[in-house]
Amino acid sequence: MHPPTLVVHADWSSGSAKRWMARASRGADGVYRAGAPEPVGDLATFFDRLRGAAGDGGCVLLGVDFPIGLPLAHARKAGITSFPDALAEFGAGEWRRFYEVCSTPQEISLHRPFYPARPGGARQQHLLAGLGAASMDALRRQCERAYPGRRAAAPLFWTLGGQQVGKAAISGWRDLLGPALRSGRPGLLLWPFAGRLDRLCAPGHIVVAESYPAEFYGHLGVVLRSGGRGGGKRVQSVRKANGLVLSAWAARAGVELDPLLTGQLQDGFGGAPDGEDRFDAVVGLFGMLNVVLGRQPPGEVSDGPLRAIEGWILGQAVSR
Predict the structure, then answer these.
(1) Is residue 150 part of a domain?
(2) Which residue of 8, 22, 226, 275 has the lowest C-beta tally within 10 Å?
(3) 158 vs 55: CA distance, rounded Å
(4) pTM of the full structure
């Protein structure tokens, strides 16, 4: 694999104020130097800014924590054989209402699958009936299903509750990836749809992969207390304790830290509400570097439908 010149993780949200990214640049000596998290900023210029930061002939590996792919059962019903091809079409033609979240069960269809627009009487059974699915697992991709040590992720098309990912997917597809694919942006490739990571990371390429801090916690030794008053990543003291863990990982991996990032890790990213977003941006970056440095397998899928339609999560083991 040609080592990426720039590795970036963007902690995503449907609201721009909660989108933070952390990045690391590879120096001429081969060492990655990680900086403090910063706002993602204007999506219209996002890829241009990354390209500029990587320099002429540089390679960018971008991780985003929103789904990239469709549940196979849904894709088959909708006649979709390639997720990247479908993504370029969503929002236009027969897919013109794809990103409009349904307000009532009667609006749900294969071409308008996100539900509900607001709480109040909405049930997952409405989504199952509207999409002709037998269970919520049928609306999950293989990489989203439960395995020992991790509960199942929220289904892509369900947009209610604290664990839902549908609204972030809408934002990421509609406002970032879809426009870039339709514009024919040179060198933009989606992993694993376009091939193996070691082949995609090449000069001039921007490789986009689905990456999740929650997947990386175990890889990096991050431990978050959950439930009760003990908190979790929303609590500064918990982030501060894990800042020591992350700093130790960086030292072992040979990743250099900008002094500002070192200070933020030691401080638990402050007491402001965006501390958890900045924390996850750094966890996501370190998890990606763990893969790039060969300390964790990327999780390559060879199955045709998985690679063409469902996709995979970077760093997640394929065989469960």
Answers:
(1) yes
(2) 226
(3) 39
(4) 0.96
